[in-house]
Amino acid sequence: MTGPVQIIGGGLAGSECAWQLASRGVPVVLWEMRPRKTTPAHSTGNLAELVCSNSLRSDDPLHAAGLLKREMEAFDSLIVGAARAAAVPAGSALAVDREIFAERVTGTLAEHPLIELRRDEAVEIPAGDVVVATGPLTSEAMSAALAKILGSDYLYFYDAMAPIVETDSLDHSKLFWASRYGKGDDDYLNAPMSEAEYLAFHRAVTEAEVLPLHDFERELFFEGCLPIEELARRGVDTLRFGPMKPVGLTPPDGRRAHAIVQLRQENLAKSQLNLVGFQSRMKWPEQKRVLRMIPGLEGARFTRMGQIHRNTFINSPTHLSPFFRLKRRPPVRLAGQITGVEGYLESAATGLMIGLYLALERRAEAARGPEPLPAATALGALVRHLTESDARHFQPANVNYGLFPELEGRIRRKERRRAHARRARTALTAWAARHRLALSGADAEPAPPVLARART
Q1: Beta strands of 283-344 (E only): which ranges?
Q2: Which of 95, 273, 324, 347 is the residue whose CA sits 20 to 30 A from 88?
Q3: Is domain 160-309 in CATH 2.40.30.260, yes or no?
């Protein structure tokens, strides 16, 4: 097809897809309804606004999330590049100053001559090549448009946002800066708890008044982002083996803590911190009462309370092809969390892949179309999850090595991550060479001039 690609939604997936297409010479119309029409979770009109955590997970190159970042960087990812430019200290994770990150993405896309940024709500799916990247909070109009194509209702689950506090409102005499196991610098502010303090806190969490859910909805929480009250109800020690685990951290007095709450820097000024893993659906007055039981947070001022919202996704194994096309309307592709990937990074990765596939399909010499990205890569493993999982039990997932094909031969456990990373790099390099795509990085092979990215 000719003409611009219509991308509906300027979140992480839509922004990355627009960049991948435009930087390869394909014109784009990028639809974003904010700020004209907002959502319950967003607060600005910036593209790629982060609404939950400010972390893009581990940056360890042997971790599955770290491997995915490097594969995306090989294709000049806008999202990963902006994240590195807006990074704040977070140990071995890649966390960002939200405002700087979103402003950088917005500015880059707004200035590109091949991207038309249309600030309006798309209420129907246009003709031609379309990428629907409306995210977990898809508007009613777009939901209805998709339902007409899919012939079934969406699946959905509930996700939550952690509270944010002002740094200068905390009692730092009860807190200490450190990273778990010394990874990185002293990037986290830690609140140690004695056994008595922890038990009192646990009891308060389980007894706090929460926003009601229907019984069937309790099964729809994503396991990687459970509210603290849901965790607490699973057992008295669940929190201290989850977001409050004390291992790898030693308070300055040398005493062993029974549990530790970690707070992570939200912005470069360190004026705000978020409570890591403390997403909640407690009512706001209850959150303030309960969270102020944490040592050092007795006088905490909250700039954002924990929230809960409905995240929507489709049954991708039923509806999507390996190229993210809707089987019932192939010119339409879905990207981001609506496909059933979970996480900022994974959402952006789907947009990157769609951008690559569309750019390749539009080449005159690519009549046969591109090959799917290899399942041995982190990118391809995500597609494998979306298209080959059992449709009867499909659930959202972060990238992890359980999504990859098994390694061949007998490999020692501690060497498996390295083996996965090595195999992925080989597979990605070969795929890029077959498609004459340039890979970024010092050790990447240069592509023929005809495939050089369009630069502005």
Answers
A1: 302-304, 307-313, 325-326, 329-334
A2: 347
A3: yes
